Fold these 2 entries.
Entry 1:
Amino acid sequence: MDQNVHFMTIASHDLDATRQFYETGAMWASLLDVPGEIIFYQVAPGTVLSFFDADKFAQDAGLPAAPAVSGVTLAHNTSSRDDVKIIVSQLEVAGGTVSKPAQDGAFGGVFHAHVTDPNGVIWEIAHNPFWDVADDGTVLLSEPS
Amino acid sequence: MDQNVHFMTIASHDLDATRQFYETGAMWASLLDVPGEIIFYQVAPGTVLSFFDADKFAQDAGLPAAPAVSGVTLAHNTSSRDDVKIIVSQLEVAGGTVSKPAQDGAFGGVFHAHVTDPNGVIWEIAHNPFWDVADDGTVLLSEPS
């Protein structure tokens, strides 16, 4: 099994609020949008984040009831601390809930905030000087001293 | 906000079982592994999937209790239908729970299975002839006729 995630799919109880959050707040464009069913956004080379109507998600997964999202965060790293604040306020205006205002994190040097999307996904918006991506896409993590 | 997910983080109640599933079952190699805390796997250019001790996840997110994962699936597409069956049996041996044995999906042409990881993440292992990735990483989705 190659080391690739091709789709992350999130159960959504409100696709319209989801579209508002990602397209007005994050300024993303969908790859494919089937109203009432599923919305796809490309989020990395070869990788798509999709929001799937929660009833249909349950049916597809053989679950007894439409699930609420828990236990998952997604993170977006910015090039500056100011960008963290700007993005958080854009996401809040578009329907996000700020659960951790922009602040220094527990690990040295990280400056971050948490914004929950309409589905319960916690977004960490962060400026992290210990993270970088090489030209070939390799993620470089260094540990703060 | 650029259209990029840099980290997906999953709350884990058993990092040892997680390591077994991903390293023995999926044959993945970690980018960084801090026993008892967090394991990072690169899963796309610039994108990392991490498993974070659930108590620490709760503390970081300001949640009242360690969450169980629900409402999220991850998908891996294979180049053949046979590969779906091979990968599913490797993941099952490594501690996965097969909730949907390999079968034709509800949408035309897809052949898939569901395997739940030790944390509650539902993995869809699929052969999907309506999905492709261009050389520049752009995901190409076509709808079955």
Entry 2:
Amino acid sequence: MKSDIDHLMKDANLDSLLVIGPAGHNPYMTYFTGLVHVTRGYLLKKRDHSPVLFHRSMERDEAASTDLQIKNLDDYDPIKLLEEAGGDQIQADAMLLQRIFKEFDVRGRVGLYGKTEIGPHYATLHLVGETLPDVELVGEASSRSVLTRARTTKDEDEIARIRKMGEITSTVVADVAGFLTSHQVKDGVLVDRQGEVLTVGEVKRRINLWLAMRGAENPEGTIFAIGRDAGVPHSAGTDDDLVPIGKPIVFDIYPCEAGGGYFHDFTRTWCLGYAPDEVQEVYEDVLDVFETVYKALKPNTPCRDYQVMTCEMFEEKGHPTVLNNPKTKEGYVHSLAHGVGLAVHEGPYFSHVESNKDQLLPGSVITHEPGLYYPDRELGVRIEDTVWVHPDGTLEILAEYPKDLVLKM
Amino acid sequence: MKSDIDHLMKDANLDSLLVIGPAGHNPYMTYFTGLVHVTRGYLLKKRDHSPVLFHRSMERDEAASTDLQIKNLDDYDPIKLLEEAGGDQIQADAMLLQRIFKEFDVRGRVGLYGKTEIGPHYATLHLVGETLPDVELVGEASSRSVLTRARTTKDEDEIARIRKMGEITSTVVADVAGFLTSHQVKDGVLVDRQGEVLTVGEVKRRINLWLAMRGAENPEGTIFAIGRDAGVPHSAGTDDDLVPIGKPIVFDIYPCEAGGGYFHDFTRTWCLGYAPDEVQEVYEDVLDVFETVYKALKPNTPCRDYQVMTCEMFEEKGHPTVLNNPKTKEGYVHSLAHGVGLAVHEGPYFSHVESNKDQLLPGSVITHEPGLYYPDRELGVRIEDTVWVHPDGTLEILAEYPKDLVLKM
């Protein structure tokens, strides 16, 4: 959590962190600023010093509302810098950063963070790196970076916010179940009282509406994938598809707080009306793995162990997995879990590769999401909850929801 | 527009473009892919060749739905690459890009694009640049880049989508006006029939709801700024604020298509019940400048000329501006306009600096948004429409809406 940043910086031998970009939909910046309307800026954090937010004049009140130390970028006279740079914006931006680094005595290894435009920032940072010999600009792999590791464990306020998003998510999931089952069936697909067919696009529009009503936002969209689409993990579903009975629907929903805050991540697989035997069998395999591996999760153990365990269980049940065939497109084809926070996918990571050293730490929030996929059989099943590892090491599913495969019509 | 990319690449002496990141909320990638659920990938476009989208296995169906040439990243065996790199993800990603560059014979100047994580990509690209001597990685300034310039002019499909967003936006603006004026006034602020006070936070929740109902998304939030907040252009307003009569409210709304598509940008300034003389006078100055400069806009002329014209008009009326004092926080403190498309702020740009060579081209979509700001007088006024410059050079406001300052209660 935030209080770990200084010692994580020491471990990584970083002297400063430079975070670039807006405060919204940019987890690295939002982590420091909270949800404020700062659309462009820098945040500089030296080790063992408080962070400083550099903002534009137009956003001075928003910057001031953060309780961070703030500094107005207009104090560096960006228009004069641009003139001095002969109208070259990249050069002018590099000069601005050089002045900031000089004024704040930034030297040594500077970690780079932020979700922002790669092109101009690559060029600017390249120039800064070339012209400041006592500064080394460091881009760490996402999975291992200081801020990823800090964000991997959450404080109470963060848990409360993710929990709130979990409540909203499961309320909307229940709304969707109620909406689907309020329909009638005609020629094997759902129709409303007027006999109008229901489409996946209409279901998704309702989801966005019901999320917005409850103060949530859905920037990454929703997976509502039927039949063959369900058999491809990230297939979002096809808007024009009708909604059939007796076919598996993978419904994966991952909204965040409005403005780009904390996420929740949740999946159920439903069959409307009835489940064919083939789907039922695959579902039971997934559910068994879900429950067995969940019970096995213990704090302060390697995350990769649970991915291996999941693969081995699925293999015993006769399914191909990424462990014995990394390129398989059938069976179990993804990781068991990932962290959830200001990004829907963040640390800890659960890849089975040997280089993955992530531990399941107390304070982390992770998904738990085994699944099986057989696109050629028009079949996919995933079950996912979001789980908090309490500081005392016990586990809690943040938003409980029934795991029925069949929704009765 | 898209058909200009090859000759713009030639002008900029770029041999290839490399776009990095997801398809959603990443205008550079969305420009090629459309709104599909591709969360991670590369797009490579060599000059005079069709673009190729590199995707993960899990997202193969989504990638295939784009009509782009596609290539599965798993074909490069990323797990083996990671092993070869000794578990160093940055090294493995660099090796992956090196293989792609070799296979597709990428040489010369490669322009970098994409809104994505700066840290790991900076490190990866730095490594690629160091190890491939016949490749030069180029990050252009956003305002001048090939894709910014291509995106500056829109084709018919893009115009239709922005127009649709304009219709949605003005419908929601009318909803907000109706919602506000349906309230009663008690002690100078709005209350509902039960006497409950209305807050800015509640107004914003309704806006998100009404946008979602109509298939739009609001990733950047809404400005609903009252009094002193209205006097600071990017102050988004304060959620706990009550809604008073007789004070200026700057209401700036800039939603996009759900999933991260085309934006519309629109502002009105309202006084509920009545407008104090001081606000009325400032409003009339802004409206006069709005109308006069709008009539002056001509295609194929420098954008900066209109910013200078706007400053000079405001100065004649006795207001400070960024032309005579770049650091002013009072008077006219921002640019007249900007392009609108897959980003809410894109080219052409209207800064008055001499290095700004942007032209107002036929086919572009721009805002038109003069404003005046006096935070110490608790006063701000901005009027903004989104304007299409037709291919024949005539102008059209894409969503007309009344410009009354006072909303009668």
